[in-house]
Predict the structure.
Amino acid sequence: MLLHDETPSAVETREQSFVLGTYNRTPFHPRSGKGAKLVDAAGKVYWDLLGGIAVNVLGHKHPRLVKTLRAEAGQLLHVSNLYYHPAQGMLAEELVRASGMSRAFFCNSGTEANEAALKFARLANPGRSGVVALEESFHGRTAGSLSMTGHEAYRTPFLPLVPDVTFVAPNDVAALEAAVNDNTCAIFLEPIMGEGGIIPLSDDFLAAARKVADRTGATLVFDEIQCGLGRTGTLFAFQQSGIIPDIITLAKPLGGGLPLGAVLTNAQFDALVKPGHHGTTFGGNPIACRLGLAVLHEITKSNLLEKVTATGAWFERQLKKLQSQNPAIVDVRGKGLIWGIELDRPAGPVAKELLAKGFVVGTARDRVLRLLPPYITPKKAFTEFITALEQVLASATETQPVQSETPTVAAHRAA
Ligand SMILES: *Cc1c(COP(=O)(O)O)cnc(C)c1O
């Protein structure tokens, strides 16, 4: 029997017996899809407004990706990093030319990209161990990246982690300036914080980070794993502010759905990083790099950056309008096609009801709905989403407001 034909309950039962319980999975079984739509095992159709958490920027079964995959399937599936294949250099060239950085290193995931960035920052700052990162940041789950992730629940069971990491509140310039010192080797920032609840860092804060990094020699790393590669309407999120980091980390959408991460480094690292300093068996896989090239080409050829910008500006107006009419919406944050809708109630049950209505959305923190839709998503999907959200917030089910002592994410906003 094909696995594809397994019933949802059989799939769930087998997982419960054999897959380690790291995920609290939603009982949703997407089995096929096209464009911005997903179809579940029962044949029900959904608008995919989460895009596999910012991965599927071209939606599902995109013809360019399918064609690339078919062509590459007849070639070598793996080439060791001991040797050469053409696609790695080609993708590096495009990323370097588009970002203004100098070199690329390829790995398989976001957390690996940040691990590599941390090691490169150590090479650039011998004898200095400090890292400054943000409260409620997210940089990944491996030990080094977790050390820089400012979310207590993820960190506590695994202490002690990599030492000398200081966390400061997002957009608090004075705290950042006070935390960075002559022992700081790196400052890690997400230009728009994703898991933290879609918190855009202000231009002032980013500029202050650049300035304090220049003053102390610390390496400024922008983690654009979630907000990069077109999501804000420019290929890189840093291009929105004009503040140029020393290192950029990328992953989620880079491989068109296959695992691929990258670290882009400025010229300072060209001579610094030497053979033996870092490496990976699978990083820069030929198929993943070909898909990466296809993603970049499709973004260019179909003017997707303009589409993201225009759709984002229009959607922002719709969301703000809904917020002005609906006290259940506390705040709306984002740009392009990365949006956080902060509610006065837990977001989980709201997301669950939206799913039942045919909308796949994510959550962040306790009360933020998170949207990371494919760049090809039609306006219709967003219009229908707004209507559905309005209905869910009005319905008197478990999605009711809560009083809480915890400050809202809105408190972190740029002043
Ligand atoms: C998802 C994410 C990561 C971790 O990426 P993985 O591929 O899951 O390891 C790191 N940083 C940010 C900003 C992310 O959104």
